[in-house]
Amino acid sequence: MDIKTALFDYLLRLGDDSLILAQRLSAWCGHGPMLEVDLSMSNIGLDLIGQAALFLGYAGEVEGKGRDADKLAFHRDALRFRNCLLVEQPNGDFAQTIARQYVFSTWQRLLFQGLVKSGDPRIAEIAAKALKEIDYHADWSAEWVVRLGDGTAESRDRMIAGFAWMWRFVDELFQVDDVDAAIAKAGIGPSRASLRAGFDAALKKTFDAATLPLMPYPAAVLGGRQGHHSEHLGHLLAEMQFLPRAYPGATW
Amino acid sequence: MSNEWPLWEVFIRTKGGLSHRHAGSVRAPDAELALRHARDTYTRRLEGVSLWVVPSAQIVASDPSQGGPLFEPAESKIYRHPTFYHVPDSVKHL
Question: Are B27 and A147 a contacting pair at CB < 8 A?
C-alpha cells in the first residue's frame, strides 16, 4: 500500500472517530440529567468536532481532489466512513453514554500521546492541541464511571450494562491492518496493538476505584475501519447529513 | 426536587494577581464534580486561570431586613472617605 493512500485512510479514521462521537454527544443537548452535565457533554462534543475538522481538512488536502472537511463529513455515504464501531453505538441511558466515552477517551488519550511524536508535523500539531482536551474527557468520564459504579445499586447495574454493550467493540480499537502497519512503519503513528497494555492498566485502575468487576471480553465485532458499519451509523448520518444534502450550499 | 444535587458557589480568578470573583453557582454531587461543572459552565470562553467552589450552605449571609442598622449609619460619615486632602499639583502619578 502506498503511503499517500494509507495516510488518507488513516486521517479519515481519526477524523471520523471524533465526528461520529460528537454527533452522538450532541443528541444529549437539552436532555442531560442536569444542566451542568448537559453542558459538559456538549463541550466534549464541540472539542471532538474541532478535531474532526482538522483531520478531515488535512485528509482532503492529502487526497488532492478538492474535497474539504465539510464535503467529507456531509457528502460521504456510510460505506466510506472509517470510524470504529464503538463511537456509532447508541447513547442509551446516561451510563451507556459514559461507558462509551470512557472507553473511547481512555484509548484516544494513549493514541494521541503517540501521535504528538508523529513524523508528520501536521498530525503532531493537531494531536498536541487535542491531547489537552482528551485528557479532560478521559478524566471526566472516569469520574463518572467511579460515581455510577460505586453509587447506588441501580446506578451500578446501569454502569455494568453500559459497559456490557460496549465491550464487544473494544478489540477493534487495537486491530492492526495494512493501513496501520504502513503508518507505523512510516513513523506517522504508534502501532495500535502497542496501546493495549496502557489501556488495560488504566481500565483496571478505574474499575477498582469504581468497585466494578473486570468482565471478560466477548468475541470482537470488527469492520468499522473497512466501512462495514452497524445499522446505527446509517440513521445517524441521515440526520447529520440531511440539511447540506437537501439544500446544497445552504448558509446561515 | 428533594433529590437535587447540592448547590456550590463558583469563584473565578480571571488572571494572575487578581482576586477570585463570584461568577455564579452550579449543582454537583461532590466537590470534584463541582469543580468540573464550574469549569464546563463558566470558563468555556477562557474566562479564568483558577477556580474555587464553595458549598452554598457554608456561606453566611447578612439579613436583608437588617440593612438599616448594618449599612445606613455609614451614609452620613463622609469624613471616612479620604477626599479632604489637597494633592499638590506637582505630585504626579498618585
Answer: no
